[in-house]
Amino acid sequence: MDKIKKRALYSSLLAVVFTQLISCQMKKELPQFHVEMCHPESKYRIELVSDKIKTLEGNSASFPYGGSSGEWGDSHKSWTEQYGTPVGVDVTYYSKYEDTFYRLNVDFPIDTIKDWTKRFYPSSEVEKNHNELQEYIYDTKPAQKQTYIEFRDLIFGFAPKGMVVVWLRYGGTQKELGRYQSEVVKDDKTLADKLFSSTITVSREQIRNTRLIQDASPVKWNNFRTKYDWRPAITSDNPKFKLFWVLTEYFNAEFENKLRPMVLHPKKEKRAIPSLITFFWETGKGEKYEGRAFFNWEKTNEQFKNEDNGDNEIQIKIGADNLDFEVFLNGNPLETVNKRVFKTDREFKESYR
After folding, report:
1. Edge-to-edge strand list for the sheet holding 183-184
2. Last residue of a domain, one of 173, 204, 221
3. What is the pLDDT of residues 262-298, one digit of tens each?
C-alpha cells in the first residue's frame, strides 16, 4: 500500500509540474505587456474598483492595483507582465473629484489590435543590423533584436466625465488606439460600500465636501486628439547637411521615433499637433547638433485650421552656420514657444568620420 501511495503521490507531483511547464510555455508564446493607468493631472486621479482585460486567447489579464498616476499618456509606473492579445476591457472605477462611479465595457477594433500587437518599431541604430530600417516590421531577425521594439505597454488614460483614451507603446513609439466613453453607474451603493471600507479612508461625505471639481471637463484632452494631414520637412542651407534622427511628441500623448531612411522622405499622414520636435543632424566631422522646437497647441492648431490645404508641411529650416533655425507651416512663419540648438556627440552609422 505504501508503494501505491508513493506512486500516486509521485504521479500527482509530475502532473502538477507538467501542468506548470505547459502554462509557462503557453505564456512565453503569448504577447506580453504591462498595463498603465494615467490621468491628465494628479487632481484627476481615479480609483479602481474592479477590472478585466479581455484577451483573444481567453486567459486572464488585469490592471495594476490602486489608482491612476503620472501624466496624460504615461503613468510613470510599471506592474507585473500580463499575457495575451488585449481585445477589450471591462473596468469599473471611482472618480473622487466628481464623486461618480463609472463603468467602461468595450471591445477594441479586432483587426487593428491584432495587427498592432504584432508590430515591431525601430528604436535605434545597431551596427550589426545591415538591413535598411523600416517604419515597422512583423518579424525580427537575430541582428534586429536590439533595433526593433515589440508591443510592450497598454496605457489607459482616464479624463473627466468618463472619457478614456487607450494607447499602445513600443519603446520610442506610442500610438492611440481610440477614445472611449464610460457609463455612469447610477445604483452605486454596493460599490461605494466596498470601496470606502477597503481602499478610501475618508467618508464619501468628506469627499463631496472637499474633493469635488465643479468645472471638470474632458474638452482640453479631447481637443488634443485633433489631427491634420501633414509631414515634417527639416532642411538646411549647408550643402553638407545630413539629417539622422527625428523624435516627435504630440499633445495627444502619441510619440514617434524616426531614423534614416524614414527621415529623408517623411510620409504625409494624419498627425496631432506636436508639442516638441527633436532632431539630430551633422554638417561635417565634429559638427554634430541637436535641435528642439516647442509648440503651443492653441496657436498651432489655429494656424492649421486657417491654412489647412490637405498637403501640409511643418518646415524647419536650419541656418548654414547651425546656430539657429526657423519654423514654418506651408511656407508661413509658425510661432514656437521655444527653440534650442545644442552640440552633441551622438554617433550614427552614416556620421562624418
Report:
1. 46-55, 86-95, 100-107, 183-184
2. 221
3. 999 999 999 999 999 999 999 999 999 999 999 999 9
